[in-house]
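Need C-alpha coordinates for this chain, all 246 residues.
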Amino acid sequence: MKTKKLSPIVAALLLAACSDGTSPGSTVSLSLSTRDAFTAAPAQAFAVAADTLTKGSNTLVIESVEMVLREIELERVDVPSCDVAPEPDGCEKFETGPVLFQLPLNGATQQVLTIEPAPGTYDRVEFDIHKVSGDPEDATFRAEHPDLVEVSIRVQGSFDGTPFTFTTDLMDKQEYQLVPAVEVIDGASTNVTLYLDIGSWFGDGAGGLVDPTSANKGGANENMVKDNIRDSIDAFQDMDRDGRPE
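Here are the C-alpha coordinates for all 246 residues:
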Protein backbone atom coordinates (compact mmCIF):
# COMPACT_ATOMS: atom_id res chain seq x y z
CA MET A 1 0.00 0.00 0.00
CA LYS A 2 1.26 3.49 -0.81
CA THR A 3 0.23 6.30 1.53
CA LYS A 4 0.69 9.95 0.61
CA LYS A 5 0.20 13.00 2.78
CA LEU A 6 -1.23 15.64 0.51
CA SER A 7 -1.36 19.38 0.69
CA PRO A 8 -4.96 20.65 0.73
CA ILE A 9 -5.36 20.72 -3.07
CA VAL A 10 -6.21 18.18 -5.81
CA ALA A 11 -8.95 16.65 -8.07
CA ALA A 12 -12.18 14.71 -8.70
CA LEU A 13 -14.17 11.42 -8.12
CA LEU A 14 -17.84 10.71 -6.99
CA LEU A 15 -19.60 7.44 -6.12
CA ALA A 16 -22.93 6.23 -4.66
CA ALA A 17 -23.41 4.68 -1.25
CA CYS A 18 -25.62 4.57 1.80
CA SER A 19 -27.19 7.40 3.75
CA ASP A 20 -26.94 7.46 7.53
CA GLY A 21 -30.60 8.40 7.66
CA THR A 22 -30.10 11.94 8.95
CA SER A 23 -32.22 14.78 7.69
CA PRO A 24 -31.69 17.03 5.78
CA GLY A 25 -28.56 14.95 5.15
CA SER A 26 -24.94 15.61 4.31
CA THR A 27 -23.32 14.72 0.99
CA VAL A 28 -19.80 14.16 -0.24
CA SER A 29 -19.11 13.94 -3.94
CA LEU A 30 -16.15 12.39 -5.65
CA SER A 31 -14.68 14.07 -8.72
CA LEU A 32 -12.00 13.13 -11.24
CA SER A 33 -9.69 15.74 -12.71
CA THR A 34 -6.78 15.99 -15.11
CA ARG A 35 -6.38 19.72 -14.54
CA ASP A 36 -2.93 20.61 -13.23
CA ALA A 37 -3.81 21.47 -9.65
CA PHE A 38 -0.49 23.17 -8.91
CA THR A 39 0.06 25.28 -12.02
CA ALA A 40 -0.98 28.92 -11.73
CA ALA A 41 -1.69 29.19 -15.46
CA PRO A 42 -3.85 26.22 -16.53
CA ALA A 43 -2.88 26.72 -20.18
CA GLN A 44 0.59 25.46 -19.30
CA ALA A 45 -0.73 22.12 -18.11
CA PHE A 46 -0.58 19.09 -20.37
CA ALA A 47 -4.24 18.16 -20.05
CA VAL A 48 -5.43 21.70 -20.76
CA ALA A 49 -3.40 21.91 -23.98
CA ALA A 50 -5.90 19.72 -25.83
CA ASP A 51 -4.25 16.64 -24.32
CA THR A 52 -1.31 17.11 -26.65
CA LEU A 53 2.25 17.06 -25.36
CA THR A 54 5.30 17.82 -27.47
CA LYS A 55 8.80 17.20 -26.15
CA GLY A 56 11.78 17.32 -28.42
CA SER A 57 10.82 15.72 -31.72
CA ASN A 58 7.97 13.66 -30.24
CA THR A 59 4.28 14.54 -30.04
CA LEU A 60 1.83 12.59 -27.87
CA VAL A 61 -1.92 13.05 -28.30
CA ILE A 62 -4.23 11.37 -25.78
CA GLU A 63 -7.80 10.94 -27.01
CA SER A 64 -9.30 8.75 -24.27
CA VAL A 65 -8.32 7.31 -20.90
CA GLU A 66 -10.36 4.56 -19.21
CA MET A 67 -9.64 3.35 -15.68
CA VAL A 68 -11.20 0.61 -13.54
CA LEU A 69 -11.49 1.33 -9.81
CA ARG A 70 -13.11 -0.50 -6.92
CA GLU A 71 -13.41 -0.29 -3.12
CA ILE A 72 -13.55 3.50 -3.16
CA GLU A 73 -14.13 4.75 0.36
CA LEU A 74 -13.83 7.69 2.70
CA GLU A 75 -12.39 6.90 6.15
CA ARG A 76 -13.23 8.76 9.36
CA VAL A 77 -10.37 10.13 11.45
CA ASP A 78 -11.16 7.92 14.48
CA VAL A 79 -11.03 4.67 12.45
CA PRO A 80 -7.60 2.97 12.63
CA SER A 81 -8.24 0.85 9.54
CA CYS A 82 -11.07 -0.12 7.22
CA ASP A 83 -9.15 -3.18 5.99
CA VAL A 84 -10.50 -5.42 8.74
CA ALA A 85 -13.53 -7.67 9.18
CA PRO A 86 -16.08 -6.78 10.25
CA GLU A 87 -15.57 -3.32 8.82
CA PRO A 88 -16.05 -0.65 11.52
CA ASP A 89 -18.41 2.31 11.37
CA GLY A 90 -16.81 5.31 9.77
CA CYS A 91 -15.84 3.56 6.52
CA GLU A 92 -18.11 5.23 3.99
CA LYS A 93 -18.08 3.59 0.57
CA PHE A 94 -18.55 5.42 -2.69
CA GLU A 95 -18.37 2.12 -4.59
CA THR A 96 -17.40 -1.48 -3.85
CA GLY A 97 -17.45 -3.47 -7.09
CA PRO A 98 -15.32 -2.60 -10.14
CA VAL A 99 -16.50 0.48 -12.00
CA LEU A 100 -15.20 1.96 -15.26
CA PHE A 101 -14.39 5.66 -15.43
CA GLN A 102 -13.71 7.70 -18.55
CA LEU A 103 -11.26 10.33 -17.33
CA PRO A 104 -12.10 13.91 -18.26
CA LEU A 105 -9.65 15.42 -20.74
CA ASN A 106 -8.80 18.99 -21.73
CA GLY A 107 -8.08 19.82 -18.11
CA ALA A 108 -11.66 19.20 -17.04
CA THR A 109 -13.00 18.12 -13.65
CA GLN A 110 -16.00 15.82 -13.52
CA GLN A 111 -18.09 14.74 -10.55
CA VAL A 112 -18.67 11.01 -10.75
CA LEU A 113 -20.17 9.76 -7.46
CA THR A 114 -22.00 11.03 -4.40
CA ILE A 115 -22.62 9.55 -0.97
CA GLU A 116 -24.40 10.61 2.22
CA PRO A 117 -21.96 9.70 5.01
CA ALA A 118 -22.58 10.14 8.70
CA PRO A 119 -21.44 13.55 9.98
CA GLY A 120 -17.87 13.56 11.22
CA THR A 121 -14.27 14.26 10.25
CA TYR A 122 -12.77 12.19 7.43
CA ASP A 123 -9.04 12.29 6.78
CA ARG A 124 -8.36 9.53 4.23
CA VAL A 125 -9.64 8.35 0.87
CA GLU A 126 -8.75 4.87 -0.35
CA PHE A 127 -9.36 2.96 -3.59
CA ASP A 128 -7.99 0.13 -5.70
CA ILE A 129 -6.78 0.42 -9.28
CA HIS A 130 -8.29 -2.88 -10.35
CA LYS A 131 -7.34 -5.37 -13.05
CA VAL A 132 -10.50 -7.12 -14.26
CA SER A 133 -10.07 -10.85 -13.68
CA GLY A 134 -11.98 -14.11 -13.46
CA ASP A 135 -13.07 -13.42 -9.88
CA PRO A 136 -16.82 -13.93 -9.27
CA GLU A 137 -17.15 -10.29 -8.14
CA ASP A 138 -16.00 -9.19 -11.61
CA ALA A 139 -18.59 -11.30 -13.48
CA THR A 140 -21.05 -8.50 -14.22
CA PHE A 141 -18.28 -6.13 -15.27
CA ARG A 142 -16.74 -8.79 -17.56
CA ALA A 143 -20.08 -9.34 -19.26
CA GLU A 144 -20.49 -5.60 -19.88
CA HIS A 145 -16.85 -4.95 -20.88
CA PRO A 146 -15.33 -8.16 -22.30
CA ASP A 147 -12.62 -6.10 -24.02
CA LEU A 148 -11.23 -5.03 -20.64
CA VAL A 149 -10.52 -8.47 -19.15
CA GLU A 150 -7.00 -8.48 -17.60
CA VAL A 151 -6.93 -4.68 -17.98
CA SER A 152 -7.13 -1.86 -15.43
CA ILE A 153 -6.30 1.14 -17.64
CA ARG A 154 -6.64 1.74 -21.37
CA VAL A 155 -5.33 4.81 -23.21
CA GLN A 156 -5.89 5.59 -26.87
CA GLY A 157 -4.37 8.31 -29.00
CA SER A 158 -1.44 8.88 -31.33
CA PHE A 159 2.33 9.10 -30.98
CA ASP A 160 4.14 11.04 -33.69
CA GLY A 161 1.03 10.67 -35.82
CA THR A 162 0.72 6.88 -35.44
CA PRO A 163 -2.41 5.65 -33.59
CA PHE A 164 -1.79 3.60 -30.44
CA THR A 165 -3.65 1.66 -27.78
CA PHE A 166 -1.94 1.26 -24.43
CA THR A 167 -3.26 -1.16 -21.80
CA THR A 168 -1.92 -2.17 -18.42
CA ASP A 169 -2.78 -4.80 -15.83
CA LEU A 170 -1.58 -2.55 -13.00
CA MET A 171 -3.19 -3.43 -9.66
CA ASP A 172 -2.50 -1.07 -6.78
CA LYS A 173 -4.11 0.03 -3.53
CA GLN A 174 -3.94 3.80 -3.16
CA GLU A 175 -4.52 5.60 0.14
CA TYR A 176 -4.30 9.37 0.53
CA GLN A 177 -4.36 11.48 3.66
CA LEU A 178 -6.61 14.50 3.23
CA VAL A 179 -4.98 17.64 4.59
CA PRO A 180 -6.99 19.41 5.83
CA ALA A 181 -9.44 16.70 6.79
CA VAL A 182 -12.95 16.81 5.33
CA GLU A 183 -15.62 17.97 7.77
CA VAL A 184 -18.99 16.38 6.99
CA ILE A 185 -21.73 18.54 8.53
CA ASP A 186 -25.45 17.78 8.55
CA GLY A 187 -27.19 19.63 5.74
CA ALA A 188 -23.97 20.61 3.96
CA SER A 189 -22.13 19.24 0.93
CA THR A 190 -18.47 18.92 0.07
CA ASN A 191 -16.30 17.30 -2.59
CA VAL A 192 -13.14 15.23 -2.81
CA THR A 193 -11.22 15.27 -6.08
CA LEU A 194 -8.84 12.67 -7.45
CA TYR A 195 -6.28 14.32 -9.67
CA LEU A 196 -4.42 12.30 -12.30
CA ASP A 197 -1.42 13.83 -14.03
CA ILE A 198 -1.84 11.83 -17.24
CA GLY A 199 0.77 13.99 -18.95
CA SER A 200 3.45 12.31 -16.82
CA TRP A 201 2.51 8.71 -17.62
CA PHE A 202 4.67 8.37 -20.71
CA GLY A 203 7.59 10.51 -19.57
CA ASP A 204 11.04 8.93 -19.73
CA GLY A 205 12.35 10.58 -16.56
CA ALA A 206 14.79 12.71 -18.53
CA GLY A 207 12.41 15.25 -20.02
CA GLY A 208 11.42 13.17 -23.02
CA LEU A 209 8.59 10.86 -24.07
CA VAL A 210 8.36 7.14 -24.74
CA ASP A 211 6.13 5.47 -27.30
CA PRO A 212 3.12 4.21 -25.29
CA THR A 213 3.19 0.90 -27.20
CA SER A 214 6.61 0.24 -25.64
CA ALA A 215 4.85 0.14 -22.24
CA ASN A 216 2.32 -2.53 -23.15
CA LYS A 217 2.67 -5.90 -21.42
CA GLY A 218 6.18 -7.26 -21.92
CA GLY A 219 7.43 -3.98 -23.37
CA ALA A 220 10.72 -2.33 -22.44
CA ASN A 221 8.98 0.54 -20.64
CA GLU A 222 6.15 -1.41 -18.97
CA ASN A 223 7.40 -1.10 -15.39
CA MET A 224 8.50 2.53 -15.76
CA VAL A 225 5.07 3.61 -16.98
CA LYS A 226 3.36 1.63 -14.20
CA ASP A 227 5.49 3.53 -11.68
CA ASN A 228 4.64 6.82 -13.42
CA ILE A 229 0.93 6.05 -13.10
CA ARG A 230 1.24 5.20 -9.40
CA ASP A 231 3.07 8.46 -8.77
CA SER A 232 0.69 10.61 -10.83
CA ILE A 233 -2.33 10.57 -8.51
CA ASP A 234 -3.28 12.95 -5.69
CA ALA A 235 -6.46 13.58 -3.69
CA PHE A 236 -7.77 16.63 -1.86
CA GLN A 237 -10.82 18.52 -0.69
CA ASP A 238 -12.16 20.59 -3.58
CA MET A 239 -15.29 22.46 -2.49
CA ASP A 240 -15.90 24.28 -5.77
CA ARG A 241 -15.01 21.24 -7.92
CA ASP A 242 -12.50 23.15 -10.02
CA GLY A 243 -9.70 20.58 -9.79
CA ARG A 244 -7.70 22.62 -7.28
CA PRO A 245 -7.19 22.10 -3.52
CA GLU A 246 -8.90 24.34 -1.02
